Amino acid sequence: MRSYLDFEKPVGELEQKIEELRAMQASGDVSVADEIERLEAKAAQTLTELYENLTPWQKTQVARWPTRPHCLDYVAALITDFTPLAGDRKFGDDEAIVGGFGRFRGESVCVIGQEKGSTTESRLKHNFGMARPEGYRKAVRLMDMADRFGIPVIALVDTAGAYPGIGAEERGQAEAIARSTDACLMLGVPNVAVILGEGGSGGAIAIATANRVLMLEHAIYSVISPEGAASILWHDTSKAQEAATNMKITAEDLMRFGVIDEIVPEPVGGAHRDPAAAIEATGAAIGNALAGLSGLDRDAVRRQRREKFLNIGRVL
Length: 316
Known about the structure:
By secondary structure, the protein is an alpha/beta fold.
């Protein structure tokens, strides 16, 4: 059974009625085809209207929705011959960040992404996409390898933020994030980042400092979560909705400020309603971004990336 976000309840009620009518029709007792068709049209129209006018807080809910496709879903659909690599060669492996090498549309690529997990077991395994220092050090190792062999890097971003645990801090979380960000900036090969759902704080920036930053239509990207901002500013997490509105965390806002380069459209009702279509659109956007960077030499790649981020400050 499909589950619904709070603001999707009008659609849920209509779709429940449709299912009830289909059950009646299947029993052969009554012909309700016309009524089903009418309700389907009404549900589709209601869904379209809802998603055309989402508030920043509603977009936050969509970005966090557990059935939204995650990093490994994109890897499975877009990357062939994928070979994952593990470990940072210093402490251990962190499964919040998955990475390795494969082929995207026939060309070799390095893929680094944050995986939240889709079941209770996998969420615990991947620590809900919140990486520890060894995860970012693994990302640095993969980026260094990609740079050495002239292989473009694709980053798939989906995290509430870096893991804030004591052990992570003891092992140098801030230093690991800084070195990963620096590794992104120093790459002599093109890198493209895609904000799939949540792009939270330094945990996202560590792998998203790229030549091209793409963002799904209903994703969010921010220095802190709305709840965290509300707790700091008002000492009241119930004001998260107000914080989300004021923080300018939506794709439309960030495109206007020049923080991202392209908005990837999602199917009506969000990526979770039609994961295959969302993944296909994302693949097309990644392909176009890489094609636009393919003619640049190493110095030009670094220069373009440097100017991109300096321009954010100049514009603002």
